[in-house]
Amino acid sequence: MGKKITPGLRKRGGIWHIEKTLDGRRLYESTGTSDLVEAERYLTRRLEEIRKATVYGIRPERTFEQAAEAYVKAKAYKKSIGREVIRLNEVQPWVGQLSLRNLHMGTLQSFIEQRRIDGVKSRTINQALKIVRQVVNFAAEELIDEYGLTWLEAAPKIKLLPEHDLRPPRPLTWEEQARFFPALPNHLATMALFIVNTGLRDAEICGLRWEWEAKLQGLDGSAFILPARKFKSRQEGLVLLNRVAQNIVESQRSKHDEYVFTYRGEPLHHMLNTGWRNARRETGIDVRVHDMRHTFGMRLRAAGVSFEDRQDLLRHKSNRITTHYSKAEIRNLLAALEKLCIREDKPEIVLIRKVVGK
Q: Could you tell me the CA-to-CA distances from 88 to 62, 67, 112, 129, 154 in Å, in that order?
């Protein structure tokens, strides 16, 4: 005579499933195993979890991986979710199967140490720690289970690492620009020139759309208004164009119906690609895409543009509503931008480096 099957278990498709009603609540889930003994152990554990949750308010054990999956599903609308998934995949081998209640800075140390061994910068490690922190906060504040309990009673404190190894800004000199830009593919050289004249970020220039272009009332030329929902600052940003930037816009106008900058008819996801890396190797000039924005800011400063005007032109967060300027204010900002176009007596950026031993 075969072994008696525990009530509440039913085999379907070779896998044991739980089909049971407890206090009017239906428990219907897979045990994930074809072995009856393992299925019975799983059922016993689940019944004990339910008893503890309903009677004593003790939360069931859940892994970080389960919480991460719930987070990604709930936050799929976020523009940054793709990057967050990449960071979650980096940390999963170390803490994915760890119980949420056992996740803290101590259990993250092996991940941190291995990333340091791999030569990863603190800022990159911090990006992974930030998404870990977001997931555990989500589990403690927003994830509610069938018992009316959050997945975590309280989120652990996830501290970020000091970024002592952060690479300092590296603006281009005019001589370096004259060597580096010609080494870039044409589409990247055009975009780089646009950045050093407008201060756009990588994501902003790659996503720049014609529908955001606006005429300047009573003034020559046009501008772009970056929508708040799309970019880092989370507020509308006015992108004014000096004559170099305006000429670039006109040269791009017939190339694509939607995006200002494209490559082979498609928008770019980012500028740091093989073409950019090849130009760095060819010229020996080690600059990042974001250094073009630093170059813009430093050149404005070298040209004597005021701090307030630089803040506006760089679209830094402030209490000012940066898309509502008077005509006089816009003229003033355009005059500041035009200083970057003057070839004669051009202000040079002097890079001061400490000499070891002196």
A: 17, 11, 14, 9, 21
